[in-house]
Automatic annotation (TrEMBL):
Stated name of the protein: Thiamine-phosphate synthase
Provenance organism: Paenibacillus montaniterrae
GO BP term, pick one: thiamine diphosphate biosynthetic process
Binding residues for Mg(2+): 76, 95
Catalysis: reaction(s): 4-methyl-5-(2-phosphooxyethyl)-thiazole + 4-amino-2-methyl-5-(diphosphooxymethyl)pyrimidine + H(+) = thiamine phosphate + diphosphate; 2-[(2R,5Z)-2-carboxy-4-methylthiazol-5(2H)-ylidene]ethyl phosphate + 4-amino-2-methyl-5-(diphosphooxymethyl)pyrimidine + 2 H(+) = thiamine phosphate + CO2 + diphosphate; 2-(2-carboxy-4-methylthiazol-5-yl)ethyl phosphate + 4-amino-2-methyl-5-(diphosphooxymethyl)pyrimidine + 2 H(+) = thiamine phosphate + CO2 + diphosphate
Reported function: Condenses 4-methyl-5-(beta-hydroxyethyl)thiazole monophosphate (THZ-P) and 2-methyl-4-amino-5-hydroxymethyl pyrimidine pyrophosphate (HMP-PP) to form thiamine monophosphate (TMP).
Amino acid sequence: MLKAEQLAVYFVMGSINCKGMQTPLQVLEDALQAGITIFQLREKGKGALQGAELEQFARQCQSLCRQYSVPFIVNDDIDLALKLGADGVHVGQEDEALLEVKQKLPHAIIGVSVHTEQEMQQAVAGGANYVGIGPIYATSSKEDARPAAGVGFLQSMRQQYGNFPIVAIGGITGENAAIVKQAGADGVAVISELCQSNDRKRTVRLLCGAEG
């Protein structure tokens, strides 16, 4: 269902993350052309789209992802994911319980944010397809971000859970992505690093650990 390599460059975006000359859909298509491997729609924060506007925007994002054969993941909103037939959902510890999500979306990719060993254990035992570990470094993209954890917890979880798919998030850039992957992440999730990039092909290469 989900291969670890599909997490390589995990782009997370909502309409409020795109403040430049390009529209959010232009940013997404440019990122898809640049080579992102999975996309999560995270429409949260002040000024976020709601209702019919959100559904329309989500469908447009989903359509672009399908054109490039990239999985389309919805953050938190199980009802929206069901309505769209999204490829998957990503939930945090404060969101709907993993077991309930799996019952509602039995064939979807399900990712879970984890911050402790207990949360990791529960996510793996509960049938998550991958986990998101972070914030690795300090980040300004999420208003409710927890303190930066560094790579120590990531390294520990990789040692304990072998090949279980892990994506790292939080303050990751082209300059530190290789360090994060060496610590055990299958992929890196970014918001501003791609939203604000002037050369997304180069940014994706750097996030993959390749030379720019």
